[in-house]
Structure formats: structure tokens, C-alpha cells
Amino acid sequence: MRPVLLSLAVALLAAAPAAAAERTVTIPSPGPGPARFDRVEVTKIGPSRAGTVLVLMPGFQGGAGDFTLVGRDLVQRVDGLQVWAVDRRSQPLEDTKVFDDARAGRVSVQRAFDYYLGWLADPAIQPHFEAPRDADLGFAREWGLTTALEDVRRVVRSARRQGKRVILGGHSLGASLTTIYAAWDFDGRPGHRDVDGLVLVDGGTLGSFTVPSLQDTRDELEKLRTGSPFADLLGLGLPWAAGVFAQAGAVAALKEPTAPSVGQAFPLLPAQFKPPVPATNRGLLGFAFDKDTSPDALSLIHVNAGRLASSGDPRDWEDGEVTPIRRLADAFSGAPNATEWYFPSKLRIDVDAAQFLRPNAQTRLLGLRPRHLAGVDDPVYALQTDLTNGRVLRGARAFVRRSNSPASRAVLVDATATDSHLDPLTAAPGRSRFVQTVVPFLRRLVRDAGR
Questions:
Q1: How confident is the model at residue 200 (pLDDT cuts 50, 70, 90)?
Q2: pLDDT higher than 80, residue 451
Q3: Is residue 359 packed enough to be buried (19+ CB in 10 Å), middle (13-18) or exposed (0-12)?
Q4: How far apart are CA 243 and CA 163, in angstroms?
Q5: Under the phi-then-psi rule, with left for phi > 0, alpha for psi from -120 to 50, and beta for the rest, what region is 240?
Q6: What pLDDT does 450 receive?
Q7: Among candidates 377, 380, 378, which has minimal Cα distance to 437?
Q8: Which end of the chain, N or C, is less packed with Cβ atoms under 10 Å?
């Protein structure tokens, strides 16, 4: 090879890993339950030499895979930034191996569907997925806010020990965890002292979501004491079903996008997710997630992705608006997983009770410690979609006003007109209000770190 070409090839090879490097690491973190759950899985995206880390926490029934695509978008646009996407400690309960095989082409889409879901209608299918029994998982009733924040603190401190500055953020409930972390009392040390900025993506506290009464909290605790440790989003008595349905549909849409949908004829898929005409795999995925056709009650999974084609047999999906269907399929089919099969109900109870970010009857009942709101001095970025009718930004403004966060550095973005709840994670970067507005915010923080 000529010297000039050799030099160019070496330069390209050297540059590629810095932009695309991804690896998952395990950080030990003691907590309630068997030792195999005493860990946090963190997917690191971008150059390890970066001096600033954006630690991102997923929302309700979300996973580290929520941030795979947008994490890549961010590290490509912000020099000196690495993204760390956090999974909760429930992740080891998930059995994704056959989905991984289907994504890699080692088994068919139909085989993956049958392994996870088909056997429910046809018990003759063997082998098949076997969920752990709730009776064996009672310890997960203690996986609340204290456990979640201690897990994240292990991640934050791991970055700090490596000499990195940390920006903490999250999506939806993960954004609420972000503000609570900043105000939390860790044995006398305020959480905000270990972070240098807060990124709130369609979530937060101080009225962003409904705050329950003390009696509501007591009722929820009693329900948890006698029921499953995990949320059951679809109400099927199968806490893992929502995550598995989403991942199965995404794998099918990614690997066999124009084939007839493997899920449409499945009797246990709720009718509200099924198009009124035969659809392709990606047609079913788009119909189930798109704001215009997905159930109103499931606004937490909505995107603006286009529409079902007006003709064809089966009907395909036509891209439009901000999220291409391929990106949605890529995010929800992959490893790490973008869906959380087992979301601890105690975490939701605690987060709801702590949203005022100050001690009250609910936090005393639950033993929670949001005590340092007034001292939080980190710059805040917040974005809202159409989910909460403006409450996310009202909550962000209240957070800045009641804390010591500099109002002059706050970046508050209203994406209500273009985005639904998942769009900030899946939108094409050229159409993403989140990417377009958070990048300047992150660049300023990274620049400040270099001074």
C-alpha cells in the first residue's frame, strides 16, 4: 500500500473506535436479595478517553437500550463526551438469548416469537420461555428508590474515580430519579455534589406527574405486600409480557419488515394493538406505537412515526414525522434491551411520594431522604413532549426557582408540537428536538470542564 493511503487507512481506523466504541460493564452494588442481583449493568458509548460522562437512567419499564441510538448521536456531536446508559438491577431476570439469536440471524423470527409467546397459546411448543415465579422474588418488593439511587451512585462514583466529570440525566421516570438524586441525602452528603449538570427528558418532579396522597401511598404499599413485586402494564397477570411483546414486535420488524406480521393473529395480543387489516411486521409495530393509532392509555410508548399504508396486502408502514420505523425497531429489538421486563413496583411508589423533593408524611412513611433541594447548584436542561400538557416544564421551572441552579444557564425546550414520549430517544437526529437542543448544552458543560 502506498504511504499516503496507508496513513489515511490508519487514521480512519484510529478514528472509528472513538466514535462508535460500545461495551457493557458490571459495577457491583449491594442491595436486597440474592448476590446475583448485586450489580448494575452499564453500557458505555463513545470514547473512553472522554473527560465528561453523561449518565442516563431509563424510565418506567425502560432499559439501557433506550439510549443506544441517541447516545451514539450525542457522542458524535459532542467532543469529549461519553454516554453511560444504566440498567436497573432487575435486568438479570430477563432471558433475551433467543431474541439475540433472532437478531443475529441464528434462529427465525417465528421461532423467537414462539419461544417467548407462542407457547402461551400452544403448550406443545418446546422448549419455551419460563418466567421466574413471583413467590421466589419477594425480595424485589424492597427494590425501591433507596436501592435505585444507591445503584446509580455506584455508577456516578465509578466515573468520578476515573477522573471524569458527571452529568446526570434520564428519560421519564429516569428524569424524576435525576432530580431526586440531586436532592438526596447520602449519609450526610448531598447527591448534587457529585454531578455537574442535570438532563431531564420528558420527566422530573415538583408537579410533573401526579403526586399521591398519604392514604394512596398506604394503599399502594398494602397492594404490593400481597401482590406481585412487579408492574403489570398490560393487566394480563404476566409482568414480563409488555416488554416481551414490544421486543418480539421490534425483532420481527427489524429482521423481516415486509413479511406478514407474526403477531397479528396471536390471540393473546390485545386487540387494541392490532391493525384493522392484515399488516406487515413493521406495520404492526408502527400501528402499536404511533400516537395516532396506539391506545391513548399507553401514551408512555407513543412516537410520531408515520402511518399504515393505504393499500397493499399486507399493509406496510410509511415513515413520516420524526421517528423512522427502522430506528424504533432497532432500539427495541437490541441488546442492551430498551424494555424492562420486570419493573419494581416499589420504585414507582417511592418516586411518586418523593416528587415534592422535601420531607413530608409520605417520605417519612417510606424512609426516603430528599433533603437538599435548596443546595442544588447544577445547570438544568429539560425537554417536554405532548405527554403531560406542559407539566414537565412547569416542574423544571419550579426546580430551578426553588434550588440554587443558575436560571441563566437553564435550557427549557417545549417539543409538544412535534414529539410524543419516546420520540426524543428514537427520532432521526436531523429531526430530533432533543439532539438539536441538548448538544449545545452539553458542549458548554464539557467546555467548562476543560477550563
A1: very high
A2: no
A3: middle
A4: 36
A5: alpha
A6: 67
A7: 380
A8: C
Q: What percent of the chain has pLDDT over 90?
A: 89
| CB within 8 Å of 22: residues ≥ 6 apart | 43, 44, 45, 68
Alpha helices in 53-165 (DSSP H): 68-77, 97-103, 109-113, 119-121, 145-161
Write the single-letter amino acid at 419.
Answer: D
Classified as helix, coil or strand, 403 is coil
What's phi and psi for 413, nearest 5 deg? Answer: -120, 125
**Chain-wide mean pLDDT for the chain?**
93
- Given a cut of 50, whether residue 17 has pLDDT beyond it is no
Residue 208: pLDDT band (50, 70, 90) is low
* 12 CA to centre of own chain: 32
Which CATH number applies to 19-90+144-231+347-451: 3.30.420.10, 3.30.9.10, 2.40.50.180, 3.40.50.1820?
3.40.50.1820
Q: In 3-state terms, the chain is what percent helix, strand and coil (to 5)?
A: 45, 15, 40
Specify the domain boundaries for CATH 3.40.50.1820 within the chain. 19-90+144-231+347-451
End-to-end CA distance of the chain: 42
Residues 375 and 382: their CA atoms lie apart, in Å, by 19
Predicted confidence band of residue 12 (pLDDT cuts 50, 70, 90): very low
Closest by CA position to 87, among listed 96, 98, 75: 96
Q: What is the pLDDT of residue 19?
A: 44
